What does this fold into?
Amino acid sequence: MPSWCRFRLLVAEDWALCKKSLTNFRDQSFGLLMLPRNVNIILLAISVSLLCYSTVARAKKAILVGEALDMIDQFYVDPVDNRSLLEAAMTGITSQLDENSEFIPPALFGAFQDVIDQEFAGIGILVEQPEKAKPVRVITPLAGSPAIAAGLLPGDEILKVNGEDVSTMEIGEVSNRLRGPVGTELTVSIKRKAGTEEDKNLDIKLSRRTIEIESVLGDHRDESNRWVFRLREHPEIAYARLTGFGEKTVVELKQVLETLNSDFDSLILDVRANSGGLLDAAVDVCDDFLDAGRIVTIKRRGGEIESEYDATQGVLVRGDIPMVVLIDGNSASASEIVAACLQDYKRATIVGSRSFGKGTVQSVLQLDNGRSALKLTTARYYRPNGRNIHRLANAKPEDEWGVSPNEGMDVAISDDDYKAIIQLWQKASFPVISGANPATEASGNPGSAVDPQLKRAIEVLRKNKGQDDTETHAEARKAA
It folds into this structure.
């Protein structure tokens, strides 16, 4: 070790003992000390130069967009809104990426965040706009919302909000005006179609409240408008339909399973028409049914492992209880993580039709001080067996992608049947649509008559429990 290095170590131990020799040592060590100091300066200069070069390279690209916006502002024949042009440019940039990456403008970012958070402050209605520049129309008020308490009905057309004419505004603008701080009041002016009678214009006063968006639904509602998580026709079979994977999904499902307390013969987890959501939520749902094992692996650019998720000790449903996961072509992303994981560990039988095939992970990167965002594909996920289920743009049916049902469990469904299922789901979710008592209304699942996938799931579960269909036994007795 050089003498100057030994000196630096000694200083830390006992400065008092070395102080006397410092003057003599300084002259002979000065030249040696200069060497590392110069090297540090050179390395610092190189680092700053590289940083400046990288910054300038990025700035040149941004300057190009800025110059174009300035030229349009100066020379285009008509006045233009610079903000709209900028948002269009951002949309154009992300359009060159994969189909799951996008720019989320300020007008949509709030609604996007509400879906993830599963709550918003408003009056609690679903709306649609059948024609552009025509009034937004109420599809249904949500159960237990201020809207249903105030008497808003399906079909009501929204004309004004707090006296402001919104009859020709886009649906996003109208929704933004209906939302606001919890506890604030507003007046909604509507036109109500009265059939053969003259249409009525009404002013309805409401108070905004936190509206929670359910993501775990049951088969049907009881007299108190609460979900029943058992099939009406087969109460021994527990049933939960997940419409998304948001911030509250895990808690919702946990409450359902803890309430049921494994007091059922079998379970159906329905993720049909579920386009996904949060990765963490999908992992935690898998963990509810597994005691150990790798759930999913996330890999970044170049195949570098970003994170690996494993199941933890303890389950919410006993391992000896048979389970089916229902999937279809609209089951994607987080839904596929759950289906693939439970299939690989043989914890559940997968019934339905091949899933969508989205094996990528998106990150939401906020822009503009949190007013807008980039949703970018930043990684791919791999199921426990090591495969990535992403469907490429040129993928063929015979290629390996998506999650496929177990052998013999692929059940085709017609477009008409699928529409009927969706409609009955809506009636079960929003009783106002049907205008019937939820306790006597048809089940959220239309049964085997219109839902062959559900029928197959019931058959599989009853077979696993050694149960034969009662009607079949009755017919056999008649024949005997």
Summary: Confidence is low (pLDDT under 50) at residues 1-33, 436-444, 468-480. Residues 216-470 form a domain with the 2-enoyl-CoA Hydratase; Chain A, domain 1 fold (CATH 3.90.226.10). Residues 22-75 form the longest helix (54 residues). Residues 35 and 41 are 10 Å apart (CA to CA).
